């Protein structure tokens, strides 16, 4: 059995080696909850190859552990590895502000029969589960992007993974607080994934995940004092990390929907809180700014709603407000990010205001009592969305894309 350098606070190889050498059968009592069964199949086939787990034992995210479906997948890999006479390496990545490899070990067995091999496998899993649940952050903040990259290097065919492609598992809330993917940046939670991926690619910041299977678990599941995400915000976060993994070269990306709960570990370095914007306050008689989110936001560079049904739900009270009062009027003002020529910004923001009007009319509002205009990026409250290098900043750019609904009657 091979051993690799370990973080002093963890005992991955020691725990695995001791458990395997003891030949104990852990069964349902395996440390880390490796009971097997009942977790449901993942949407991606998990190959028999190296596995790298990027797991957070950090503030603001539930204590580390594996959902049942991931336990089942890990058991399956080790079981099939015995049949294929392959010795998979398992690596743990400690996800914090400066992710590091917490250790790795290789599963092998010289058992002469299936029962003994199963005992060896369960012993290995017992040690692995103990090491995984014992992971604790050492550096402040959370750098999910770097943790994915480090895991990709551990499991990919181009790194220590050898000739077989492997699997990268991320278990974290996904709320990274380290640049270039810092969710404290205003608007980033709502930004279209394609724009964020483009910005990461331009900065050569995508994780190296070529040829590996990626499994994402726990995204959007937080622990106090981090504010909870709405279902729409969690969907946005899942879409973003899925797009990042695909852009990094993953052959398949699976998302585990099993929720993670519980408190964050105690006595760990601090992680900054991510501001979770509340949904727009719908008060038809007052000025309301419709944000660029999954409820009333638009597809990039178009006046097409991301989710027309969600937009209908948001805009229905405004339509009723105009329809039920003969004096009520609405003025719609579209704003935009500072991208492209100024006239193009004005044109796009005007078309988005018109799209909102069209939907209001469809919902019963009189067209002759709704006016529209576009102002592009020239409006009070504009947030600088261009970085020092001249590239667009996805978060602030998203914050600048709005339609302001103002009652005028």
TrEMBL record:
Signal peptide boundaries: 1-21
Boundaries of every OmpA-like domain copy: 285-409
UniProt keyword Signal present: yes
PROSITE patterns: OMPA_2 (PS51123), PROKAR_LIPOPROTEIN (PS51257)
Keyword Signal: yes
InterPro entries on file: OmpA-like, OmpA-like_sf
This protein's UniProt keywords: Membrane, Signal
Name under which the protein is recorded: OmpA family protein
Organism: Actinomycetospora flava
């Amino acid at each position: 059995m091979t051993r690799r350098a370990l973080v002093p606070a963890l005992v991955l190889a020691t725990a695995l080696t001791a458990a395997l050498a003891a030949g104990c059968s852990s069964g349902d009592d395996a440390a880390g909850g490796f009971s097997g069964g009942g977790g449901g199949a993942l949407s991606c086939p998990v190959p028999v190859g190296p596995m790298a787990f990027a797991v957070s034992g950090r503030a603001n995210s539930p204590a580390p552990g594996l959902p049942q479906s991931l336990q089942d997948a890990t058991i399956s890999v080790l079981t099939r590895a015995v049949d294929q006479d392959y010795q998979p390496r398992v690596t743990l990545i400690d996800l914090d502000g400066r992710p590091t490899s917490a250790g790795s070990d290789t599963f092998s067995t010289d058992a002469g029969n299936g029962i003994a091999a199963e005992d060896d496998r369960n012993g290995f899993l017992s040690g692995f589960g103990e090491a995984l649940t014992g992971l604790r952050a050492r550096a402040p903040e959370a750098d999910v992007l770097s943790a994915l990259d480090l895991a990709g290097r551990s499991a990919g065919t181009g790194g220590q993974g050898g000739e077989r492609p492997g699997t990268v598992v991320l278990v974290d809330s996904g709320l990274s607080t380290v640049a270039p993917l810092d969710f404290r940046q205003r608007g980033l939670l709502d930004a279209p994934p394609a724009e964020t991926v483009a910005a990461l690619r331009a900065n050569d910041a995508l994780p190296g995940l070529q040829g590996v299977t990626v499994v994402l678990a726990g995204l959007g599941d937080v622990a106090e004092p981090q504010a909870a995400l709405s279902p729409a915000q969690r969907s946005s976060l899942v879409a973003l990390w899925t797009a990042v993994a695909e852009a990094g070269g993953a052959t398949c990306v699976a998302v585990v929907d099993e929720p993670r709960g519980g408190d964050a570990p105690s006595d760990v370095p601090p992680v900054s809180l991510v501001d979770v914007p509340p949904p727009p306050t719908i008060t038809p008689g007052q000025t309301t700014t419709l944000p660029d989110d999954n409820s009333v936001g638009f597809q990039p560079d178009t006046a097409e709603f991301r989710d027309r049904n969600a937009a209908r739900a948001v805009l229905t009270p405004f339509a009723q407000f105009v329809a039920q009062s003969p004096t009520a009027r609405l003025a719609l003002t579209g704003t935009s990010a500072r991208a492209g020529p100024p006239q193009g910004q004005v044109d796009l923001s005007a078309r988005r205001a018109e799209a909102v009007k069209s939907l209001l009319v469809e919902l019963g509002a009189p067209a002759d009592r709704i006016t529209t205009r576009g102002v592009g990026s020239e409006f009070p409250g504009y947030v600088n969305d261009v970085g020092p290098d001249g590239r667009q900043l996805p978060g602030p750019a998203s914050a600048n894309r709005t339609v302001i609904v103002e009652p005028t009657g």
